[in-house]
Amino acid sequence: MLEKIVILDFGSQTTQLIGRRLRELNMYCEIVPYNKFPADDTSVIGVILSGSPFSVNDAEAFKPNLSAIRGKYPMLGICYGAQYLAYSSGGKVEKGNSREYGRAMLTPIVKDDDLMRNIPANSQVWMSHGDTITKIPDNFTIIAETKDVKYAAYRLEGEPTWGVQFHPEVFHTEIGTTLLDNFLTICNAKKDWTPANFIDSTVKLLQEKIGNDKVILALSGGVDSSVSAVLLNKAIGKNLTCIFVDNGLLRKNEFEKVLDDYAHLGLNVLGIDAKDHFYKELEGVTEPEKKRKIIGKGFIDIFDREAKKLTGIKWLAQGTIYPDIIESLSITGTTIKSHHNVGGLPEKMNLQLVEPLRLLFKDEVRRVGRELGMKEHLIKRHPFPGPGLGVRILGAITPEKVRILQEADDIFISGLREWNLYDRVWQAGVVLLPVQSVGVMGDERTYENAVALRAVTSTDAMTADWSHLPYEFLAKVSNEIINKVRGVNRVVYDISSKPPATIEWE
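Structure (tokenized):
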């Protein structure tokens, strides 16, 4: 049985990062709501309590009874988790004189403590809390401090429980990985969560679950659905049928390129040209959310139509990944956001759902793809919005606008690859603006479209910064787009970060 660390989620924005850091250490973990500890799960070897947007002194704060697991498993409280452990044991947590947010320098006091192993003095950590522990119970021992935080880290005497008031999971905590690895050592973890092990166990589970039944999967060309398809193909072979719909809003020649890639992978793929259907439904529509709904419904209708032509299909496969699962539940267990990669296919299809990647983070999906022998350009493909270029054409969508945007986008993306910049960027694309501007070409005055180049760096799309691409590259791309794309006479570069802007314009 695979060992696991359980992360109790108290609502922190960085809870997923804790899971990702543990997975990077080859440790399997699961994130569950703070009050949903899997008491009957014998594979649990340790527990982590996450941060929270609440103060432990708030009436609405999450305050579970941890008595059944305290001392039974090694436990690490992070930020709110550390404060709650102190508070619930008789300590004091009060508002700090000032909000403790940002970088701080940590100094271990008990250097031989198991959690502080190999952590030097003046190690940079990241604080993010308004409260602070002002008094610890008698059986608590301070093991590290910062200039402003006396109880930066502690341990409990006679109990395998630790707490830290900083965030080891975030990038700015330089010793975060070391600290989490120390906690895994405390848990006597084997750390055997690898892509190869995942593939072997998942293939066996899929074969047992599906048997000789037939499965249908909607391909998008993206990494999640592609890896799902290859994994299922490895498990059930020709009993898998994939459908790839061309909605007329894909990148230039993408329909043909993706079908060729899938053919090389040995997948059974049906390519459906549905451009005319989508263009007709979108005619004259300018409101962004309405465009999204039309594109989503159109996909459902086409997919449903094609699925009905097949016989014996009993399963619907999706490329759902772990962040989708986590985000689909609030920490109280109620659904706050549904994640169905195929846009909510009608229940009348009466199919069972299979999600081979539902326990993986995005970076793990890519690692599994490499282990499966997939081509790098498929694995490293930038995220692409579900509605495609439909949300990069501001205003009404027409075949001519799609042509203009596809040509400009192809020049930009090809240029990123040629200049070896593609892998330094999280996501890139071109936006066709609903404005025209005056220009001069030769001796003639022009009045044509403007496009915006967009490229961002990110780790998880929750936040993003604009990519600082070389001026020489931007100048070359701008010149090439204006010279080669009929209908464009101006190129601008978007230097907005998220927040406050979003990655996509619509």
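The first strand starts at residue 4 and ends at 9. The radius of gyration is 26 Å.
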